[in-house]
Amino acid sequence: MSEGVLVLEDGKVFVGRSFGAATQRTGEVVFNTSMTGYQEILTDPSYRGQIVALTVAEVGNYGINREDPQSDRIQVEGFLIRSLSGSPSSWRSEKSLVEYLVESGIPALTEVDTRALTRHIRSLGAMKGILAAPGGDPERLALEARSAPSLEQIDLVGSVTCAAPYRHRPEGESPGSGPRIPLAAYDLGMKQNILTRLHAAGFEVTVVPATTSAEAVLDSGARAIFFSNGPGDPTAATTVVENARKLVGRLPIFGICLGHQILGLALGAKTFKLKFGHHGGNQPVKDLPTGKVLITAQNHGYAVDPDHLPTGVEVTQLNLNDGTVEGFRHLEHPILAVQYHPEASPGPHDCYPLFDVFRGMVLLHEKSA
Fold first, then answer.
1. Interatomic CA distance for residues 95 and 100, integer angstroms
2. Which residue among 12, 98, 297, 360 is least crowded, i.e. fewest CB within 10 A of its CB?
3. Over the chain, what is the mean pLDDT?
4. What angle do CA 131, 137, 141 make, to 5 degrees?
């Protein structure tokens, strides 16, 4: 393996050894604290435009398989780890992490001081960086990183949404209880396990592009609506926000991660950028009505501002690390919105029941209508 470098926009340089594709990439550098699940992390569309560093000590030890991807390709711009396993071992493994990254054209570095990198980001905040071969002028590379477009300037949702509507039909998936409920799911960067959990909860899911109009969804026969996770700044997804605003009060709506932020904006709230985001599978969330604490999987760089929630909207869940909003409800309309990822992949399964909660919300709404 040859040497490689990560140069941050503030000029800080981290040296490592290249084990991915021999190419140069820029992106916002963030860290993820999950202990496992590197394949799911690599393929999560919410990471589009970002270079991801893992804080776990060793990566690659169980290889790559065909069952765990959360989308049809690797989504990250680059990958940073402390130690690369040279001997992947798992009965499901079909190739090595090295092969996976090289064939996908994604650069990666091992032997990076990920602890120092994480502490730097936690102190100064997420920032743009560039993965490059050694020998370049650090000042020039830092300038190149600073000059790269920020996430707010890129149509990231447009780069990850589906091109046309399609029906999700998983093979071998056991049906949910009772008849299936037609649901229109806005693909803002949908993870595969969200579709799996919606189907398991008894929904007949039609996935639609992010640009789909509210009128088209209402004419489709859907009885419920879902807004998925996705990358970037929610305020940049103006068309999605406008369609969500038109759908509020028409049908029950469920939003996860970016979808949670989209619904907040549609209701008149504001969002803000977090210093270094929440990325990992160990975020504690307190459910305010019950007092119960859930351990959740999260991957987002923005949050709903609790000081700008409109009348009729109340916070239902809070992050116990920093007090940010993790869920809200509308006092009049059937809306379920959470900032974390109840589908996990990777992460704990504490919040799987939320998909059944939403089904119950839909049935109750129809019974009372």
1. 7
2. 360
3. 95
4. 40
CA dist 297 and 277 (Å) reads 13
If residue 51 lies in a helix (H) or strand (E), which one and from where to where?
strand 50-54
Asked about 173 being catalytic, the answer comes back as: no
Quote the CA–CA distance of 259 and 265 in Å, as a whole number.
Answer: 10
Catalytic residue list contains 257: yes
Residue 293 forms beta bridges with which residues?
286
Q: Give the DSSP H/E element, type plus range, for residue 219.
A: helix 214-219
Q: What is the pLDDT of residue 166?
A: 96
H-run or E-run covering 197: helix 192-200
Annotated active-site residue in 257, 260, 330, 351: 257
For residue 41, CA distances in Å to 12, 25, 31, 89 come to 25, 18, 11, 19
Give pLDDT tens digits for 61-115: 999 999 999 999 999 999 999 999 988 999 999 999 999 999 999 999 999 999 9
pLDDT at 170: 80
226-258 CB burial, b ≥16 within 10 A, e <16: bbbbbbbbbbbbeebbebbbebbeebbbbbbbb
- Annotated catalytic residue 341: yes
* pLDDT tens digits, one per residue of 253-283: 999 999 999 999 999 999 999 999 999 999 9
C-alpha of 104 from chain center: 20
Q: Which residues contact 199 (CB under 8 A, 6 or more apart)?
A: 168, 170, 173, 176, 205
Which of 77, 278, 343, 351 does the annotation list as catalytic? 343
Q: Which of 120, 279, 341, 351 is catalytic?
A: 341
Percent of the chain predicted with pLDDT > 70: 98
